[in-house]
Amino acid sequence: MNDIINNILINEIKWWKECIGINQIQELTSIGYNVENLLFFGEIMFTLKGLKFLTLITEFSNLHIGGDGEGEGNGRNGLISLNQSFIDNVLSEPLNRFSSIIDYKIIDKLETSNCSFKNCLLVYNKLHPLYNQEFIQLISSSTLPNGSIELYLKENQLSKLLDYPFTLKENVNSNDSQDSQIDEIMDIGYQSENNRVIFSYFCTFDQLKSNRDLIESHFKKYSNIFFDTFEKELKLKVSFT
Question: Residue 157: CB partners within 8 Å, gap ≥ 6?
Answer without folding.
Answer: none
